[in-house]
From TrEMBL:
This is Multiple inositol polyphosphate phosphatase 1. SUPFAM superfamilies: Phosphoglycerate mutase-like (SSF53254). Pfam families: His_Phos_2 (PF00328). It catalyses: (2R)-2,3-bisphosphoglycerate + H2O = (2R)-2-phosphoglycerate + phosphate; 1D-myo-inositol 1,2,5,6-tetrakisphosphate + H2O = 1D-myo-inositol 1,2,6-trisphosphate + phosphate; 1D-myo-inositol hexakisphosphate + H2O = 1D-myo-inositol 1,2,4,5,6-pentakisphosphate + phosphate; 1D-myo-inositol 1,2,4,5,6-pentakisphosphate + H2O = 1D-myo-inositol 1,2,5,6-tetrakisphosphate + phosphate. It comes from the Eukaryota. The keyword Transferase does not apply. The gene is LOC111477244.
């Protein structure tokens, strides 16, 4: 009997070891390129997946497509370039502060010494980089392949409307997309390119794609909330500051950590460098830093305040109008080439995120009801808890929402349906019984109609009577956020 026990125990331990190693093997390796919030490249956000959409129900044919896309990967802005230039002298001062302490200097990464910003000398920032052009170019090619019937007509600006903001990286993204979409369909050069039109509104009056610049109430809200967001980040930054100070023997401050995290994101996304600034942080620290970015996105652009997405109503109205016109053209049996088949828009994260919220995407359970009542949601949970709201998924570079209108003549109750694709993947709509294929009638009643009760001018006028609702949450971690919201609302 004793001998049997001695045999069973090693076997039991071997089974446990096998199960542990198997579970570890199933976990994908950590890739920091997928954890850069809205600085994440499109390919990293999609994890190399290609569009592979399940076919629509039998007899359903796409008749119209709406696209709302963010510009591709870009250089840091002028303000951020100055921050990186200042980081040079800050790192040098940190090294000088450790001179004479050989044990500390041995811990310092070699790249620290004499580091120079790759963007030093750049006069202008924020421009689309070649990889950003490619993101939109190939998105255009895939879109035409995916909806070949929609893009079978000869190009006409009245059939395929392309709009972009006046910001160069957005209009350049529109051009790159169009070059892919219409490649081989023209007569220019050996590649048979063709010319096409891109329409832009003045920045000062572009309430459709730059509503965030035209809404004074939002401008005031954002200005008032930014200190609260910084306060919310402080505990995470302080903990990581302490860890890095002990790890490398340098007197880091919270500002150093913030700048080094920004450098990490730029190096990894734009330069494919992950062993310098990114190498300073452990995976768990990266997860926390990513969370701070995602929380900022949530509060200032997402579900954190209903004004963030309500001001995007002009864009939602434009999308719905184009769908109604497509339905009318189908009902009246207009000839091909005489009606619009696609409306394609290129803008910014500040456009895509509110529009995503208007559609009610990335919501769970009771959150749907809260957004319809225009109440802010609780903040995304802090790691290691999992969360559905991630900037790398919601709005990476070139992130996009496609709304495809289908005609299903065999369906007696509703002949028209809407399918939403987020970053080329079908995504369920909580407002449509968690389906990605929603009848147009239900789409209008459950998702669109509650928002159309508002008027952009009324929402955004500072002297208006529209109240800003206070969030419902009892979590202590939200104290600073709630404190600032209350002050702002008063």
């Amino acid at each position: 009997m004793a001998g049997t026990k001695h045999i069973v125990m090693p076997i039991f331990l071997l089974v446990l070891l096998f199960l542990f190693t198997s579970s570890r093997a199933e976990q994908p390796p950590f890739s920091i390129k997928q954890h850069l919030s809205t600085v994440t490249r499109y390919s990293a956000a999609n994890d190399g997946r290609n569009s592979n959409i399940a076919p629509a129900p039998d007899g359903c044919v796409p008749i119209h497509l709406n696209l709302v896309a963010r510009h591709g990967t870009r250089d840091p802005t002028k303000k951020r370039i100055r921050e990186l230039n200042n980081l040079e002298s800050q790192l040098d001062m940190l090294i000088r502060g450790s001179v004479g302490n050989d044990s500390s200097l041995r811990k310092v990464p070699s790249w620290f010494k004499g580091w120079k910003s790759p963007w030093r000398g750049k006069v202008k920032g924020g421009g689309l980089i070649p990889e950003g052009e490619e993101e939109l170019y190939y998105l255009g090619i895939r879109t035409r392949k995916l909806f070949s019937d929609l893009f079978s007509d000869d190009y006409s600006s009245e059939v395929y409307t392309i709009k972009a903001t006046q910001v160069p990286r957005a209009s350049a993204s529109a051009v790159a997309f169009g070059m892919g979409l219409f490649s081989g369909r023209g007569s220019l050069g050996s590649d048979r390119r063709r010319a096409f039109s891109v329409i832009s509104e003045s920045r000062a009056s572009d309430t459709m794609l730059r509503f965030f610049d035209c809404c004074q109430k939002y401008e005031d809200y954002r200005k008032n909330q930014e200190p609260a967001v910084d306060k919310l980040k402080e505990p995470v930054l302080d903990d990581i500051t302490k860890s890095l100070t002990e790890r490398y023997g340098l007197n880091f401050t919270r500002l150093h950590i913030s700048s080094l995290w920004f450098l990490c994101k730029q190096e990894a996304s734009l330069l494919n460098i992950t062993n310098q600034a990114c190498g300073l942080f452990s995976p768990s620290e990266v997860a926390l830093l990513e969370w701070t970015d995602d929380v900022e996105l949530f509060i200032l652009k997402g579900y954190g305040n209903s004004l963030n997405y309500k001001m995007g109503i002009p864009l939602l109205e434009d999308v719905v109008q184009s769908m109604k016109q497509a339905i009318k053209a189908k009902e009246e049996k207009l000839v091909l080439g005489s009606y619009e088949k696609a409306r394609l828009r290129f803008a910014h994260a500040e456009t895509v995120v509110p529009f995503t919220c208007l559609l009610g995407l990335f919501l769970e359970g009771p959150d749907v009801g809260q957004t319809l009542r225009e109440q802010p949601l609780q903040l995304p949970p802090q790691p290691p808890a999992t969360r559905i709201w991630k900037g790398s998924t919601v709005a990476p570079f070139a992130g996009n929402n496609m709304l495809v209108l289908y005609n299903c003549p065999a369906n007696l109750s509703d002949k028209y349906f809407v399918r939403v694709l987020h970053n080329e993947e079908p995504i369920t709509m909580p407002g449509c019984d968690n389906s990605d294929f929603c009848s147009f009638k239900v789409f209008m009643e459950n998702i669109v109609a509650p928002h159309l009760e508002h008027d952009f001018d009324t929402l955004c006028t500072v002297d208006g009577e529209e109240p800003v609702l206070e969030p419902e949450s009892s979590k202590l971690s939200l104290f600073h956020w709630l404190f600032w919201l209350r002050n702002d609302n008063r």
